[in-house]
């Protein structure tokens, strides 16, 4: 028995017409009939009843059709699995991240993976949380680094670290010594993430300001954390950013004040497909989870 016998059988079982099945397979009818007869002889079972008017599956034929379809589905799964295994040693691995968490640990991650998988082409993309979720669902990336929450039945999410918030300001333009003085900033111009770009994060920033007793005057918006910090440096406003940014910014013109009184945090999570069990994905996630302090 060969795969072509099963392929021919399924074509006839689906069409219940030898002429149409032959046309579908791009062969003539006599060879098709001969292949089906050979299959029936090998199985020692009649798969079809046929006369001048119609072709029907026997009970044995119905069972064989069901099992043959399952066999081909399993073959497709095996092929896809084999490709994934091969991609661990060659191919492409795409990692997306949000601008507010990029740090040296991501560079270290790529170095780590390159040692383990030297023939893999690793690619980094700076993408918003919402777009990362969509890209992962559509298999356009293999792993994402986002600010939670994430709600998708296709995605596995693991907390990487919990981040606090810090006020960021230009030291020459603003003089502030403690959190108790934050209310005096209520008339200052604020620079925030765009609401459509990061809706959940935008709402958290508004909650933070409400905690300190004011509604911020949001004049400038940006979709990149580095752009926000640059606008602050240029004296175009003040902002509130994840505390992780302060740890990775040593510019002497910029001041950071961690907001410790408010009990609000932002979770940074690693997201992968629930169906992805490749070694390269496991290695990437394990590396980041074991290097939280280096973020």
UniProtKB/TrEMBL annotation:
PANTHER family given in the database record: LYSR FAMILY TRANSCRIPTIONAL REGULATOR (PTHR30346:SF17), TRANSCRIPTIONAL DUAL REGULATOR HCAR-RELATED (PTHR30346)
PROSITE patterns recorded: HTH_LYSR
Domain of life: Bacteria
UniProt-listed InterPro entries: LysR_HTH_N (IPR000847), LysR_subst-bd (IPR005119), WH-like_DNA-bd_sf (IPR036388), WH_DNA-bd_sf (IPR036390)
Record keywords, A-Z: DNA-binding, Transcription, Transcription regulation
Protein name, per record: LysR family transcriptional regulator
Transmembrane segments: none
Statement: the UniProt record of this protein carries the keyword Transcription regulation: yes
GO cellular component: protein-DNA complex
HTH lysR-type domain residues: 1-58
Family: Belongs to the LysR transcriptional regulatory family.
Xref: Pfam families: HTH_1, LysR_substrate
GO molecular function, one term: DNA-binding transcription factor activity
């Amino acid at each position: 028995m060969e795969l072509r016998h099963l392929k021919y059988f399924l074509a006839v079982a689906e069409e219940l017409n030898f002429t149409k099945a032959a046309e579908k397979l791009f062969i003539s009818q006599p060879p098709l009939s001969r292949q089906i007869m050979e299959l029936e002889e090998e199985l020692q079972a009649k798969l079809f009843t046929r006369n001048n008017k119609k072709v029907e599956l026997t009970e044995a034929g119905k069972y064989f059709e069901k099992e043959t379809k399952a066999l081909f589905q399993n073959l497709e799964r095996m092929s896809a699995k084999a490709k994934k295994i091969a991609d661990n040693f060659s191919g492409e691995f795409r990692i997306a991240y949000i601008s507010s968490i990029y740090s040296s640990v991501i560079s270290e991650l790529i170095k780590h993976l390159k040692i383990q998988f030297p023939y893999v082409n690793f690619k980094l993309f700076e993408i918003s949380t919402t777009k990362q979720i969509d890209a992962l669902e559509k298999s356009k990336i293999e792993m994402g680094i986002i600010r939670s929450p994430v709600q998708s039945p296709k995605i596995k999410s693991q907390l990487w670290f919990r981040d606090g918030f810090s006020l960021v300001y230009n030291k020459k333009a603003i003089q502030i010594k403690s959190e108790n003085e934050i209310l005096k900033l209520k008339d200052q111009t604020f620079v925030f993430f765009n609401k459509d770009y990061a809706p959940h994060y935008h709402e958290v920033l508004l909650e933070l300001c409400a905690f300190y007793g004011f509604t911020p005057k949001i004049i400038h918006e940006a979709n990149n954390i580095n752009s926000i910090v640059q606008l602050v440096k240029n004296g175009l406003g003040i902002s509130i950013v994840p505390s992780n940014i302060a740890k990775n910014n040593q510019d002497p013109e910029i001041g950071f004040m961690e907001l410790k009184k408010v009990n609000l945090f932002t979770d940074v999570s690693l997201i992968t497909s629930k169906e992805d069990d490749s070694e390269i994905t496991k290695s990437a996630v394990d590396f980041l989870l074991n290097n939280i302090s280096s973020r």
